[in-house]
Specification:
Helices cover 16% and strands 50% of the residues. It is an alpha/beta fold and 172 residues long. The protein has a single domain (31-164), classed as Acid Proteases (Cathepsin D, subunit A, domain 1, Beta Barrel). The strands form 2 sheets. It has an 8-stranded mixed sheet. It has a 3-stranded antiparallel sheet with strand order 4-5-6, with no helix packed on it.
C-alpha cells in the first residue's frame, strides 16, 4: 500500500508540474490559428494565391522560374519570374529582382541537392503585411506555389491541420 501512495504522490507532482508549465506557454501576441492551406497576396497586386503552411519545412519557398544571379554594386542579386496562379486559376507573372540574402543547400526526395538563393519578400497574410525569407525554386510539380515554413510560422501562426482558408489573405 505504501508504494501505491508513493505512486499517487509522484503522479500528482508530475501533473502539477505539467499544468504549471502548460500555463506558462501562452500564444505569442499576434499568433493566429491558421489552416494548413491559406491565401496570401503581394503588395500592389490584388490577386490571391494559395500557400501551404508546412511545419516540416524550416525555410519558406516560392515557385520561381528564369532564375538568374548577377552582381549589382558589388552585391549578389537575383532576377526571377513568379508565375503565380490565383485562386480562379488565372496566371499572373511577376518579374522580380532582389538581393540574395544567402544560399541554402536543399536535399531533394531523390537524394540530389539543390543550391537555392534565398530572398526576402513582403506579402499579406492574415490581413497583415509580413516579411519572410524564401528559397527560389521550380515548384511546378507541386500543387501550391508557396510554402510557408517554420521560420515564418513561429510567433505568427499555429497550424490546425484539419482546417483551410481561415485567415484573411489581403491587407486592408
Amino acid at each position: 500500500m505504501n508504494s501505491a501512495r508513493q505512486l499517487v504522490a509522484i503522479c500528482s507532482l508530475a501533473l502539477i508540474s505539467w499544468s504549471s508549465l502548460a500555463a506558462d506557454e501562452k500564444p505569442l501576441s499576434g499568433t493566429v490559428i491558421a489552416g494548413w492551406l491559406e491565401r496570401v497576396t503581394f503588395p500592389g497586386h490584388d490577386f490571391q494565391i494559395r500557400a501551404k503552411l508546412d511545419t516540416g519545412a524550416k525555410t519558406s519557398s516560392i515557385h520561381a522560374i528564369d532564375i538568374t544571379e548577377f552582381t549589382r554594386d558589388g552585391e549578389r542579386w537575383v532576377s526571377y519570374t513568379l508565375p503565380l496562379e490565383d485562386i480562379r486559376h488565372r496566371l499572373h507573372k511577376l518579374i522580380m529582382e532582389n538581393p540574395i540574402k544567402r544560399n541554402v543547400l536543399i536535399k531533394n526526395h531523390d537524394g540530389n541537392h539543390d543550391n537555392r538563393p534565398i530572398v526576402t519578400l513582403e506579402f499579406c497574410f492574415n490581413g497583415q503585411l509580413h516579411q519572410a525569407d524564401f528559397s527560389l525554386t521550380d515548384r511546378s510539380q507541386f500543387h501550391y506555389p508557396m510554402l510557408l515554413g517554420r521560420r515564418f510560422l513561429g510567433g505568427t501562426a499555429m497550424v490546425d491541420a484539419s482546417r483551410t482558408f481561415t485567415t484573411q489573405g489581403k491587407c486592408p
